[in-house]
Design a protein that fits this description.
pyruvate-formate lyase- activating enzyme, seven-stranded mixed β-sheet, about 40% helix, six-stranded parallel β-sheet, about 475 residues, Rossmann fold, binds cobalamin, binds iron/sulfur cluster, alpha/beta, 17 strands
């Protein structure tokens, strides 16, 4: 397959590719916050530390595949590794074809290839790494560079006799502190940071303190790390923050963990170390309402917490239980109040259309939303992702549509036959936008005017829109 076999003395050469292109993402740059892929930067740093020559083609700001062609000519890689997301499937296939034309072995990794390795193998990839990539990719490139075709490599999926063949399971890294700092120099950090600085006045970077999540929400897809959970030590996290500050003058960080601060002793220690280091870095994170106790929020604000993404999901306890969310409405209320009191911005994720949801449940979500008026929000229509319990429950009712994200409102397509038609959910999304606009106007218009608009809008919904959208009163199917 590869004509790049060299004596072992020649360092193996790898080109890593991020196929994401901001300009062709429908959610575009207003809503996508651009950071280089931490997965690839860590893979690159790990490979380098093992003596591999690494280059990266980051297509985030590119218009075409020109940078890839140039890198293939210049670096003559033994192996090209592509990070995959569903959104970038077609471009990844194109990249694989070009890399193969240069004689490279082409391997896919990341969330989409992990979910459907067969699709990548049959579209031209030589192999897929569905799990944690560092050790597998290193062993793979050593094998390729010395002309050995990998066979039964742990953590690798290859095509055999037309079918996907999985090697033995690859154990997860035991100690994340042993990973080197991300290889930021592989991408154009000035471009990312300059972009942020122009838009927000801050130089923003992404940091990951953990891998995985131990919770078990029924709609959540976790193809790479499953329900496992490992974290770096607070000392290692602060080392990374200091490096970002000193090398790149970063003054705002997004912690990209699935859930930030799962362990209370860990987060208490991190807060203490951040305080001692006097970083002067503001930060944001995604967290759960059951973990965000008011005293913790206060301590986090003191060391720079500026914004929190909160998975509120629903204002109905029945729905939270059906989603196996493991949170209580009382915790949502406590957290929303504490965030407001501390002056920390809150971004709520809300979801409509999960099985079992009735119009009353949607109204309960609306009441909660109106009560707290979060500064930012996203209301999406529930997406059944393959491999999740939600998907398994509705797989006989899938509608065969492709998901369509839309500005500010999250997912807009109903992908399975739910209790109500898609147009009802879209209308409900529009009602949330009106609620948000009224929330923003609070303080500028009188409360009685705001209540008046709400009453007129609700009356129109009850008497005109809902009967029109439903035809008749319906009860949910599940
Ligand atoms: C943080 C995050 C973001 C951040 C920052 C992303 C970044 N640049 O690093 C922001 C908010 C910007 C973001 C944006 C988007 N994201 Co996002 N994001 C995440 C999140 C929560 C963590 C990603 C992460 O850093 N993981 C940690 C690293 C270490 O893991 P990793 O990237 O998977 O890499 C490891 C392995 O997968 C493997 N690997 C990865 N790539 C490769 C390549 C090769 C060759 C090999 C061998 C191995 C390998 O090895 C790595 C190290 O072990 C994930 C959920 C999750 N837990 O993965 C969603 C997730 C990846 N995002 C997702 C999506 C959809 C998006 C957007 C497309 C949203 C949109 N536009 O609608 C954009 C795309 C932006 C982009 N640049 O690609 C989806 C992807 C689903 C899919 N099947 O496509 C996920 C899985 C969330 C979900 N469940 O829906 N995202
Ligand atoms: S939705 Fe968040 S908390 Fe729930 S399982 Fe997924 S990552 Fe964990």
């Amino acid at each position: 397959m590869t004509d790049r076999s060299d004596p072992v003395s020649v360092p193996p050469r790898v080109v890593l590719v991020d196929p994401y292109q901001a300009r062709s993402d429908p959610m575009e740059r207003k809503f996508i916050e651009l950071y280089p892929s931490l997965g690839l930067l860590t893979l690159g740093a790990y490979l380098r530390a093992q003596g591999v020559e690494v280059a990266m083609v980051d297509l985030t700001f590119a218009r075409d595949l020109g940078p890839l062609d140039r890198s293939l000519r210049q670096n003559r890689p033994h192996l090209v590794g592509v990070h995959t997301k569903t959104l970038t499937f077609e471009r990844s296939i194109d990249i694989a074809a070009r890399a193969r034309a240069h004689g490279a072995f082409v391997v896919a990794g990341g969330p989409d290839a992990a979910t459907r390795p067969e699709a990548y193998l049959s579209a031209g990839f030589d192999a897929v790494v569905p799990g944690e990539g560092e050790v597998t990719l290193h062993e793979l490139v050593l094998a390729i560079a010395t002309g050995r075709i990998p066979d039964h490599l742990p953590g690798l999926v290859t095509l055999r006799h037309g079918a996907a063949h999985r090697g033995p399971a690859r154990p997860f890294l035991r100690d994340l502190d042993l990973l080197p700092l991300p290889a930021w120099d592989l991408v154009d950090m000035d471009r990312y940071l300059g972009d942020w600085q122009r838009r927000t006045g801050e130089r923003r970077a992404a940091v990951l303190t953990s891998r995985g999540c131990p919770f078990d929400c029924s709609w959540c897809s976790k193809p790479t790390f499953g329900r496992t959970f490992r974290q770096q030590s607070p000392t290692r996290v602060v080392e990374e923050l200091i490096a970002l500050k000193e090398r790149y003058r970063v003054d705002y960080v997004r912690f990209c963990d699935d859930v930030f601060g799962i362990s209370r002793p860990w987060i208490d220690e991190l807060i203490e170390r951040m305080r001692v280091a006097e970083l002067g870095i503001q930060f944001e994170c995604l967290a759960r309402v059951d973990l965000l106790k008011p005293d913790l929020l206060h301590a986090l604000r003191e060391v720079g917490l500026a914004r929190v993404y909160v998975g509120v999901e629903s204002g109905s306890q029945k729905m939270l239980d059906l989603m196996n969310r493991g949170t209580k409405l009382a915790q949502v209320e406590r957290t929303a109040q504490a965030l407001r009191k501390e002056g920390i911005r809150q971004f709520w994720f809300l979801m409509l259309g999960y099985p079992g949801e009735t119009l009353d449940d949607i109204e309960a979500t609306r009441r909660l939303f109106r009560r707290f008026s979060p500064e930012e929000y996203s209301v999406s229509i529930a997406v059944p992702i393959p491999g999740t319990r939600f998907h398994a429950a509705v797989k006989d009712r899938l509608l065969g549509r492709r998901p369509r994200p839309v500005r500010g409102a999250g997912g807009r397509s109903l992908l399975y036959e739910a209790a109500y038609p898609q147009k009802l959910y879209r209308w409900e999304q529009a009602r949330f936008e009106l609620d948000a606009a009224l929330g923003r106007a609070r303080g500028r218009i009188s409360p009685s005017l705001a209540r008046g608009v709400e009453r007129v809008a609700d009356g129109f919904h009850e008497r005109v829109a809902r009967p029109l959208l439903l035809g008749r009163e319906r009860t949910p199917k599940s």
